[in-house]
Fold:
Amino acid sequence: IIVATYDPKNQEASLLSIPRDTFVGKNPQTGTGSDKINSLYQKGPEKTLEKVNELTGLDIKYYMVIDNQALIKLVDVIGGVEFNVPIDMDYDDKSQDLHIHLTAGVQEIDGEKAEQLLRFRKNNDGTTYPEEYGGNDYGRMRTQREFMIETAKQTIQAKNILKVKDIIDLVYEYVETNLSIATIKDYAPYAIN
Structure:
């Protein structure tokens, strides 16, 4: 869960990750997995939004539920994203058919590598992000935010102007939101600038 703000007048955007295991139940001593914020999505995005507002003290009105495939396919549509992978990532989970094998450093990330990057939590040997980067889930959330920012920056480059229809098609297929088309159109010119 990422809280995003965008101020079109000042051209500033911010992202705040909310850890998926954030406790939202009534009693921590008797809490279960269903008392974690990620479990609220089963009750609908509105319930999650309500709890995010309660936790943050904000009055967020809009939500977007973005299927992982949207970002993966977007990365391929724009021809990849140049990104600095923060650490070597080496993880295999045969039960999920998940295989993550990335080397630290600046590289071109395609859709398949984007999924690996965004899903990485720990290596096969149990090591994870170093504390100075933001250990465990904090490192994962930081990588996710930084990759999303880079993807957004690289998506709005002039070279992708002819791919707008493909990008819009992805949004229609993989994004659920309570934002109206009119509201989105109001912000689009500012975001492009």
